Amino acid sequence: MTYNHGQPYSEDFTSILNQYQNMIYYNIHKLGIYDQHGEFYQEGLTALWESYRKYGDHPTFPRLATMYIRSRLIDLIRKSNRVQDRETIYEYIHDQPELNQQIENFDPSFWNTVRSHLTEKQWIYVVKRIVEGKAIKEIAHEEQVTVDAVKGWGKEVKKKLRPIMIDFL
User: Fold this and answer.
1) What range defines the domain where residue 32 resides?
2) Spatial distance between the Cα atoms of 131 and 112, rounded to a whole number of angstroms
3) What is the model's pLDDT at position 92?
4) What's the CA gap between 91 and 112, in Å, rounded?
5) C-alpha distances in angstroms, 93 versus 29, 50, 55, 159, 161?
6) Are residues 25 and 70 in the same domain?
7) What is the spatial distance between Cα 9 and Cα 56, in angstroms, rounded to a whole number?
8) What's the rounded Cα separation, in Å, for the pair 126 and 128?
9) 63 and 9, same domain (yes or no)
10) How crowded is residue 128: how many other Cβ atoms within 10 Å of its Cβ?
11) Cα separation values, 88 from 49, 55, 143, Å
12) What is the Cα–Cα distance from 113 to 126, expressed in whole angstroms?
């Protein structure tokens, strides 16, 4: 039998999980999370367990569990974004000299091909980020848009240019 602050639990965690498992899935869906590897579900499960250990006998347990799960999922989103930003910055810093050397070797027909596949904003991203080496924040400030908008341009550029780059490398 498991104890909570000296009090025995009236239900075991398996029944709590069966009862509240959909709450985890609901919060994952509500936050728009694509949980390919199940890490967000695992985080929600851990949050449910912790909230059950702390507040399992409390009358407002469902509300507290929901808040715990949602908060932990949001924290994991933020942590994942920080890690992704650090990896992107690391790759950019380490690949920049090689990239600049490669850019100098491309001919004008390459740039015309690239330009023809991109929107105006995506082309701005290529020129300012890749050719001129400006920071994302700097581009956002110059273009008077959010940092997320500039990152979005970059993601689209990568998607569009991946097949094109194979022909030129």
Assistant:
1) 3-79
2) 14
3) 53
4) 26
5) 35, 40, 47, 21, 20
6) yes
7) 7
8) 6
9) yes
10) 19
11) 34, 40, 21
12) 13
Nearest-5° angle of CA 35, CA 78, CA 31?
Answer: 45
Q: What is the pLDDT of residue 168?
A: 56
- For residues 24 and 69, state if they share a domain: yes
Record the pTM: 0.45
Structure token digits, residue 30: 């509500």
70 in the same domain as 12: yes
Contact 70, 27 (CB under 8 A): yes
Other CB atoms within a 10 A radius of the CB of residue 122 amount to 22
State residue 44 phi and psi, 5-degree precision: -65, -40
* Beta-bridge partners for 4: 7
The CATH number that applies at residue 120 is 1.10.10.10
What is the distance between the alpha carbons of residues 38 and 35, in angstroms, rounded to a whole number? 5
108-124 pLDDT, tens digit per residue, is: 677 777 888 889 998 89
End-to-end CA distance of the chain: 64
The domain total for the chain is: 2
